[in-house]
Amino acid sequence: MDSLSSEAIFGIKGTCIIAGDKSISHRALMFSSIAEGSTLISGLLKSKDIFSTLNALRALGVNIVTQDEDVFRVDGVGMHGLKTPDKFLDLGNSGTGVRLLMGLVGSQQITATFTGDESLSKRPMRRITKPLSEMGVQIKDNGKGLLPITITGRSSPLPLEYNSPFASAQIKSAILLTGLNARGLTSVSEPSKSRDHTERLLSHFGVFVDAERDINGFYKASLMGGAKLKAKNITVPRDPSSAAFFIVAALITKNSFITMPNIGINPQRTGLLTTLQEMGGNIEFTNLRKIGGEEVADIQVSSSSLIGIDVPAERAPSMIDEYPILTIAAAMASGSTSMNNIGELRHKEADRIAVMTKGLRMAGVTVDETDTSMCVHGIGDKDGFSRIKGGFRISSEHDHRIAMSFLTLGLVSEKKIIVDGVSTIDTSFPGFVETMNKHGACINKEKN
Ligand code: S3P
Predict the structure, then answer these.
(1) Closest among 285, 350, 327, 256 to 14, alpha carbons compared
(2) From the alpha carbon of 168, which atom of ligand 1 is closest?
(3) Which atom belonging to ligand 1 lies closest to the Cα atom of 321?
(4) pLDDT tens, 162-208?
(5) Is the CB of 168 under 6 A from ligand 1?
(6) Is the shortest distance between the CB of 96 and ligand 1 below 6 Å?
């Protein structure tokens, strides 16, 4: 098995170049595929998850080529131009890839079978297939709502008014994508607002998406079927969820000062930054601007003594992917950090509550766990930077964010931490290890 270890360092420094945004990269490829005309995409994330989506779109008949090292050209096939693929669409580890593509296929008169790796094959899909079937899309799953799933779409699906049981950009996006060719208005209401990259990028392509609070105070996104997407070039911001590992690494290690240019700061993605600032983290934003409808900034971070806080439950959707790395910051803080309303973490690439709790306890940190919450009792002291004992080995459980989180914890460990199953990091951040080491980390290959 592929393994890495990470050891204590004297701080990270310099200008760190972070990989492109994963959520926006998936959407950029998918939306330009059904646009009229060709779209140039700059700064696309070149990771395994994104190549899974790219290959699926090619199998659906879309021509996608590299124009130069950093630019991809997608020749859109129009609103009804996708073809039935002659093979299964294997989305690997990618929940966003498979769920959004189901929505895209839902609005086409074609049939496609979706598969995935061991982790994706355990993740719940009825949250997507149930509303799509209400739109007249035919679904065949394995009887338990899991992959493999065969979808037969319709060129003119039924419009749907959907009340989502929880905030999820994947549910919202899949329904809106099927709604693009529906005969009428499709809307999704969610109890709090999940990331809105779909709404923003559809607007970028000229589709009007209405966003409002409904009478229950829910966030509601709606669009009228029948609009056409018009090709328009895109620049992808750098991923705040990938930057998160560098931010926490700089905060918890002594003598650190880093700058990360062009990071996406969409308010639905910045919950972790707000939380870390409330914990006492030195994090500053400069050069604020907008690219392609998304806010970006350069972010500076320096070493900080952190204190534990209660993370507001309603903040969860804006930092849903960041809890694993937040637990590392919480472990090094003084006092306790409580995180509530995070039951969704049990349905990510791994059960993130279970695996982070297990690893932190191995590191000597006290953690309380319930079905939907975690409380981490930090080992930090108010006057300086502490070190945990370390000296343990843990599996990523096919989860890139768990792998990167424990490698980050190794940077403040007396004895090295070994992480098994690290090739999963390539799903979202190829070059993570090289970039960390270039700026002062000590992460090395480890024998099995
Ligand atoms: C994503 C949405 C989130 C997030 C995932 C990416 C997206 O999932 O966890 O990593 O790009 O739409 P949910 O929408 O299920 O919360």
Answers:
(1) 256
(2) 14
(3) 9
(4) 999 999 999 999 999 999 999 999 999 999 999 999 999 999 999 99
(5) yes
(6) yes
Taking the C-alpha atoms of residue 187 and residue 131, their distance in angstroms, rounded to an integer, is 11
Domain 3-20+237-445 has CATH 3.30.70.20: no
Residue spans per domain, the chain: 3-20+237-445, 22-235
Domain 3-20+237-445 matches domain 22-235 at the CATH topology level: yes
441 with 10: CB under 8 angstroms? Answer: no
What is the pLDDT at residue 404?
98
**pLDDT, tens digit (0-9, with 9 covering 90-100), for 302-334:** 999 999 999 999 999 999 999 999 999 999 999
CA distance 273 to 266: 11
- CB-ligand 1 contact for 239 (6 Å cutoff): no
54 CA distance to ligand 1 centroid (A)? Answer: 18
CA-241 nearest atom, ligand 1: 10
**50 Cα–ligand 1 center, Å:** 14
Q: Is the pLDDT of residue 448 over 90?
A: no
For 22-235, which CATH superfamily applies? Enolpyruvate transferase domain (3.65.10.10)
DSSP strand pairing (71-75 vs 89-90): unpaired
Residues 72 and 65: their CA atoms lie apart, in Å, by 6
For the Cβ of 164 lying below 6 angstroms from any atom of ligand 1, the answer is no
Confidence of residue 1 (pLDDT cuts 50, 70, 90): low
Q: Report d(CA 174, CA 156) in Å as an integer.
A: 15
CB 241 less than 6 A from any atom of ligand 1: no
Active site residues: 321
Question: For residue 17, what is the DSSP state?
Answer: P
For the entire predicted model, the pTM comes to: 0.98
The verdict on the CB of residue 3 being under 6 Å from ligand 1 is: no
The pick from 25, 96, 201, 348 for probing ligand 1's pocket by mutation, whose C-beta has the most ligand atoms within 8 angstroms, reads: 96
Looking at the CA of residue 23, tell me the nearest atom of ligand 1: 11
Sign of CA dihedral 164, 25, 399, 378: negative
Mean pLDDT over each residue of the chain, to the nearest integer:
97
The answer, yes or no, to whether residue 301 has pLDDT greater than 80, is: yes
